[in-house]
């Protein structure tokens, strides 16, 4: 069972208390961007096998959104952090690199 610690209220919540919100750290391009950029934002996802960053909502708890880094194969959780964060905190990236040598931020999906 997937257990994520909500960074907003500090409760270790199992997946029945959470609602998934899809991939985290998507880039929404502004006015003047092309249709391809908007299409990427709307429809294209990494669907990574391995390290993945996701949005979750503590639906049956504090109700707030947060982000989580986990491995989609082993279900190992590397950490959770506030939804307002534009990229994973260095501490979480270090944890991932320690567990998956060779992994790099924005290169996820390529390394397992
Ligand atoms: Zn919470």
Automatic annotation (TrEMBL):
<dbReference type="InterPro" id="IPR006279">
    <property type="entry name" value="SoxD"/>
</dbReference>
<keyword id="KW-0560">Oxidoreductase</keyword>
<dbReference type="Pfam" id="PF04267">
    <property type="entry name" value="SoxD"/>
</dbReference>
<dbReference type="GO" id="GO:0046653">
    <property type="term" value="P:tetrahydrofolate metabolic process"/>
</dbReference>
<dbReference type="GO" id="GO:0008115">
    <property type="term" value="F:sarcosine oxidase activity"/>
</dbReference>
<protein>
    <submittedName>
        <fullName>Sarcosine oxidase delta subunit</fullName>
        <ecNumber>1.5.3.1</ecNumber>
    </submittedName>
</protein>
<dbReference type="InterPro" id="IPR038561">
    <property type="entry name" value="SoxD_sf"/>
</dbReference>
